[in-house]
Design goal:
Blueprint: E1 6-8, E2 28-30, E3 52-54, E4 60-61, H1 67-75, E5 80-82, E6 88-90, E7 97-99, H2 111-134, H3 136-147, E8 186-191, H4 197-209, E9 217-218, H5 231-240, E10 242-249, H6 251-255, H7 257-273, E11 278-282, H8 293-299, E12 304-306, H9 311-326
Parallel strand pairs: 1-2, 2-3, 3-5, 4-6, 8-9, 8-10, 10-11, 11-12
Antiparallel strand pairs: 6-7
Helix pairs in contact: 5-7
């Protein structure tokens, strides 16, 4: 077909002429009475060399797609273009038929109309995204407070362990954690970074949970709180079901967003229930620039139990921690929002 010179496709209702590609020897093309909205650009450029074209009775569109054909009709002096009947197109704007060469369109891109809004949006994104990333944990926490937080139930906090459910009673509290259970399951919820898990297992559990007092600790990683729930609800559940919260502070704790959540929840319970439930334990040194604003505020009125290296100091550490666990959580003054 590359040597075809004459082609008559009149009256076939063709919507396009894409099948005519590579017919470089074509000289006469008759496509009158079809459904063409424009003529393919490749037919009016080299290496095609049309000498006779008939395009009448086609519903050409008065849009930017017709501009190449319009320019070709006006500029080409070698090709005979049959003008019977006149080539008309329908303008979407004015709803009337116009001669194919009787109108003009401004089809330039006008980059200035797009460049300024695009750069403005890009600038805003470049400013907002780093801010959102920097404060992503705070935003996540605030959204949880806004949409998912449920008011605390009226738990009983006694000076003795009557408010703690013992192992024999555990089978009576298998309801979902949304249920208004009025007695707590644990003496303390432990918030710690996974890098301090060895210290929690080897030291804290061995001396607190396995000691003669047999305090009951709640550890999320051990599966003491229900699985299959939204993690923030699960953490909040563990803190609600515990009389107090032990925060094992370290530099890794300061860098972890989930650890910050647990500290925030304990703070929230202090404010809402007016109970001093937070016990701060520090493992190793923490650089000043690592301390968050919340921790600095807590340190203004709460002491920190620092883990010592010598055995005598460790025994004193455990005695102080057990005393804090036995101390009633109720206070005589009102905690302020911090």
């Amino acid at each position: 077909m590359s040597h075809l010179t004459f082609l008559n496709l009149a009256g076939n209702k063709l919507g396009n002429l894409n099948t005519l590609k590579r017919l470089y020897g074509l000289q006469t093309l008759i496509v009158s009475d079809n459904a063409l909205t424009t003529l393919p650009t490749f037919l009016i450029k080299a290496p095609y060399n049309l000498q006779h074209v008939e395009l009448g009775d086609n519903p050409f569109s008065c849009t930017c797609s017709i501009i190449p054909l319009q320019d070709w009709i006006l500029a080409d002096t070698k090709t005979y273009i049959d003008s019977r009947p006149p080539y008309l197109c329908k303008s979407p704007a004015i709803k009337e038929n116009l001669g194919i060469t009787e109108f003009s369109l401004d089809c330039s891109l006008h980059l200035e109309n797009y460049l300024v809004p695009s750069l403005s949006c890009l600038l805003i994104i470049c400013i907002i995204v780093p801010i959102i990333y920097k404060y992503r944990w705070h935003i996540h926490y605030k959204l949880w407070i806004l949409f998912y937080q449920r008011r605390y139930q009226g738990y009983v906090d006694n000076d003795n362990d009557d408010d703690i459910i013992n192992e024999e009673e555990e089978h009576n509290v298998d309801a979902p954690y949304e249920a208004p259970i009025m007695r707590r399951r644990y003496h303390a919820y432990v918030a710690y970074h996974r890098d301090n898990e060895a210290w929690v297992n080897d030291q804290l559990i061995a001396n607190i949970e396995d000691g003669p007092e047999q305090f009951r600790l709640c550890l999320k990683e051990r599966g003491d709180i229900p699985a299959g729930h939204y993690i923030l609800n699960a953490i909040c559940h563990g803190i609600k079901q515990s009389r107090k919260t032990i925060a094992v502070l370290s530099e890794n704790f300061m860098d972890d967003g989930w650890c910050h959540y647990q500290l925030h929840f304990a703070r929230m319970r202090m404010v809402m229930d007016n109970v001093d439930v937070l016990i701060l334990v520090q493992i190793g040194e923490i650089a000043d620039h690592k301390k968050t604003l919340l921790l600095r505020q807590l340190l203004c009125y709460k002491e920190v139990l620092k883990w010592p290296e010598d055995p005598n100091g460790q025994q004193l550490f455990w005695n102080q921690l057990k005393m804090k666990l036995r101390k009633p959580a109720r206070v005589g003054r009102r905690f302020q929002e911090i």
